[in-house]
Amino acid sequence: MAGGAFSYGYSIYYALSYFVTAYSTGFILAKYYWTYSKKHGYLTQADFFADRYESRLLGVLVAIVGVLALLPYIQLQITGTGIIVESASYGAIDRTTAFIIAFICVAIFVFVGGARGILWTNVLQGVLMFICAFIVLGVPLIGVGGIDKLFAKVIESYPQYLVPPGGRGIHPIQWYMSSLLLTTLGFWMFPHLVMRVYAAKDPKTPMRSCAWMPWYSILAFPIVLAGYSALILIPKLKVADMAVMETVKLIYPPAIVGLIGAGGLAAAVSTGAGLIQASAAIIARNWIQRGFWPKASDIATAWAARILTLIISIISLLLALYAPALLVFLLLVAYSFVVQFFPGTIFGYAWKKATKIGVMSGIIVGCIVVILTTFVWRDPMGVHSGIWGLAANFAVTIPVSLATKPPREETLKRFFSF
Asked: Which range scores top for mean pLDDT: 7-16, 82-91, 187-196?
């Protein structure tokens, strides 16, 4: 977030806003996710698509797109961890070495710690992030002289950062609104979050979490302020994503810098570990056991998942080393792909005429449009690429579903009888 504020300005506010809108969406979806997963025995998001639309191939497609979408998200965690290591070492550890250290930390954590390790690290993360938010708040208060003075200086020197189209002039208001819509609809399409709801003991647990999580945006606000502070304190900062660590180093002793680094590391490592585990589980279950090797035993599948964690970690490390990008951009790329599951998810619960061919065609077309509007024609008319992909997805899914054979009546009864 700090890197986004430093680079673009106002448009990063979507990242604060979606804490409310995305978790409101999650509050509604959680009951459906949990209820149907327990009734039909789902472990992954792809299980739902394969069962609801009577298509193992669709399940494999969803698994492939889901894992590919998680790769930039995992890359983000390794990149973030590497940046923290490099900055907290005061430059003693170079970027490449820092990324390798980050990779080793995440890979070992996943392979040895497992789900229980992630759980306890998440607890530590929550405590540290709460403490760190107040420490980072000291950057504008101490380093700049107060939040009011910070914004006065930004208005004086960088007024374009506070209004559309932002600091670099590339994010008009429609980009902000479309990014907010993208994250609102896409957040609960991430495979690892769906799996987390499936694993809950009852639907009230994730719903309760969704009710409380919007308060987390309060802790994110100081991070944005640190990004603005970097504009004033370190205007020639070369790596925008280092804004928090570099501004903290200006006003706090090394011990406090280390605490901030520990909070960031806990967040990045636990999130990265969860993403890698989810990706490996999806590949093992939906690519291997229910795709290309149906006779694979549970033991063989479990071992495949453990080996895949290492492979996925290595791929993410290579992406971090050779395809670097601003962290905010990486996350939005991931959202652009997973949001293509939204039509199939909603229609799966609410529209009997949705078909496997319609949903499959929509996902494929949506992903193609995302690729084109991300790397060829970037965000046409200022609207985020993920929304263009989603619009194309709906435009294909509905008519193709109406023109093709719906699922069997027996299948529909299992989904619409309660």
From this structure: 187-196
What range defines the domain where residue 146 resides? 2-325
- pLDDT tens figures, 242-267: 999 999 999 999 999 988 888 777 77
Mean pLDDT computed over 333-359:
96
Which one-letter DSSP state was computed for residue 352? T
Number of structural domains found in the chain: 1
Q: Tell whether 345 is covered by a domain.
A: no
CA distance 198 to 51: 15
Q: How distant, in Å, are the alpha carbons of 100, 182, 212, 234, 369 from that of 387? A: 35, 6, 27, 35, 10
Given the structure tokens 């769906």, which residue do they identify? 194
DSSP structure string for 73-130: HHHHHHHHHHHHHHHHTTTSS-HHHHHHHHHHHHHHIIIIIHHHHHHHHHHHHHHHHH
343 in any annotated domain: no
Whether the CB-CB separation of 263 and 248 falls below 8 Å is answered with no
Q: Per the omega criterion (within 30 degrees of 0), is the bond before 165 cis?
A: yes
> What pTM does this model have?
0.90
CA–chain centroid gap for 208, Å, is: 20
Q: Give the CATH number of the domain where residue 247 resides.
A: 1.20.1730.10
Q: Is residue 108 part of a domain?
A: yes
pLDDT exceeds cutoff 60 at 418:
no
